[in-house]
Design brief:
The chain is globular and about 50 Å long. Helix 2 links the parallel strand 5 and strand 6. The strands form two sheets. It has an eight-stranded mixed beta sheet with strand order 1-2-4-3-5-6-9-10, sandwiched between helices. Strands 7-8 form a two-stranded antiparallel sheet. The chain is of the alpha/beta class.
């Protein structure tokens, strides 16, 4: 892990893999740079930049939990690119990361050369948000990573044909062990920021998505996703006919990105 200092004084962590054209990889709301480790080998001829958002992973927590919002996270992403002297990059945005990518493109269009959305769109289904709220900010109650892996498997029926070994990898991506407990790898205060956003959200994400006209765009949709519906994906393609949609079979929200169809979609996107 490497780090840089944000403009408001937080130390924010990130990883880099490979060399070549820069690709910024932005994770989901509670997730971190480890989610993109599956891409390191297949795309080693690209420079993958994988940050831990503030309050997640190895990054400092924000004393003001309302700092956990896509606008601030977009600012942090630009500051990371500045730190690395990267003038522009394609962006792979998983869930929350896709929204952050849109914020970046709307603020500084010249610095975003394309966006791949991983199971996220302008309509975020209430059922998916409610499911996220069930676990957000709460420790899972496991004592070992083996228990955590089994728990993920048991509580993810929308994911089919996933090995326990894969779930163990996912557990290591999402959690850490403190003492004899498996705990979340982010600031529990993220729950407060999420609740505040749910109750005050008035952003028109359709108008923001429409404003991406002219950018190379791609979408990976989990076949069994409860956050992104087929209808939303189809409307996204109606607005941007060049949007390439790939369905990750037997996956819910959100695909791991190591699926064969996801890797093909990412490869095609990066060549645009």
């Amino acid at each position: 892990m490497k780090s840089f200092r944000s403009s408001d004084g937080l130390t924010l962590a990130y990883q880099e893999h490979g060399q070549g054209e820069a690709v910024l990889c932005l994770a989901g709301i509670t997730r971190n740079s480890r989610d993109f480790r599956y891409l390191a080998d297949p795309f080693s001829d690209y420079r993958l930049i994988m940050p831990d958002y503030r309050g997640r992973g190895e990054s400092d927590w924000d004393a003001n939990v309302l700092g956990y919002n896509p606008l601030i996270e977009a600012r942090d992403a630009f500051e990371l690119l500045d730190h690395l002297d990267i003038p522009h990059a394609k962006v792979i945005g998983t869930s929350r990361g896709g929204i952050v990518a849109m914020m970046m493109a709307l603020q500084k269009r010249e610095r975003v050369t394309g966006i791949l959305f991983n199971d996220i769109g302008p309509v975020i289904e209430t059922s998916g948000l409610e499911r996220i709220l069930e676990f957000l900010g709460r420790n899972p109650g496991y004592k070992t990573m083996e228990e955590a892996a089994q728990g993920l498997a048991d509580n993810s029926p929308e994911f089919k044909n996933v090995s326990l070994e894969q779930w163990r990898q996912e557990a290591e991506n999402r959690y850490r062990i403190v003492g004899d407990q498996v705990v979340i790898n982010y600031d529990p205060g993220l729950r407060d920021a999420f609740v505040a956003a749910m109750t005050s959200m008035n952003a028109d994400l359709w108008s923001q998505f429409t404003a991406l006209n002219g950018l190379p765009l791609a979408l990976i949709k989990g076949q069994n996703s409860d956050l992104l519906t087929k209808a939303t994906a189809e409307k996204m393609q109606q607005i941007h006919p060049d949007l390439v949609i790939t369905t990750a079979l037997n996956r819910g929200h959100c695909p791991f990105l190591n699926e064969s169809e996801s890797l093909v979609a990412i490869g095609q996107f990066l060549e645009l």
